[in-house]
């Protein structure tokens, strides 16, 4: 209850004073985590998963555009931790702030729901929130590198692709997890804690083995994702996908397991292809399952109401919610 009250405070106009530094701090912390693992493509350093984009999009979906100043401040803190204040920093700041805002506007335009309980919501997050909106930050960021002669023209597309996919992965992997955590209410349903524990133990054994083995065994994580989605929907599938993606990124940056002996471009392509397909599988499969379950509940509820109406009609009574008919009419 205290957490809910805290979130409601952030929704109020006066909460902007609290929301801005809070969002900035979360963005900065996510940025520092993302910078722990880096890859080099054509001389440019990038992160395979950029968590701040996921944090920014989630904050905007939860609290609205009032979070934009906090996102801009957080982006500035991350940039300033890497370089000195220069005119090009302003361009990067604009791009890193505009991309999540663009994602928010596109998602709200199509009626996106934060519970991701419909297939259309999963598709919207993938194609609008991640793949389309993150074109802004990638184009602005790499374009500035090109204009300031810090990047050759021949390296534009590989670096642009790495930047774009890294930002998109942040949205696909981090945003659903944060939206899910926001929706959690206490007390938790622990009726299937044994199965959840078994799933977690399997993930802790199977995922490190698949991402560190010299034999290409990455495909082994997909049955795990399907199990998590079928039994625990978004919570299970996205946590499993995030855990797997982090370990795969660690293996790729260490050049071990299935990424051993590959060139930097090949490592980037293999890692991002794996992370992308895994995130899509987890997100869309859980959305389909949730939608089907909601549809089944609606049908069952309608059938139950129909049975009640028929029982009342058979007994000569008025159906529930309707006044009895006047005999004189």
TrEMBL record:
Domain spans labelled MASE1: 23-293
InterPro entries with a match to the protein in the record: MASE1 (IPR007895)
Keyword field: Cell membrane, Membrane, Transmembrane, Transmembrane helix
Localisation: Cell membrane
Top-level taxonomic group: Bacteria
Signal peptide limits: none
Topology of this chain in the membrane: Multi-pass membrane protein
Residue spans crossing the bilayer: 16-35, 89-107, 122-147, 159-184, 234-253, 273-290
Matching Pfam families: MASE1
Keyword Mitochondrion: no
Protein name: Integral membrane sensor domain MASE1
UniProt source species: Streptomyces achromogenes
Upper taxonomic lineage: Bacteria, Bacillati, Actinomycetota, Actinomycetes, Kitasatosporales
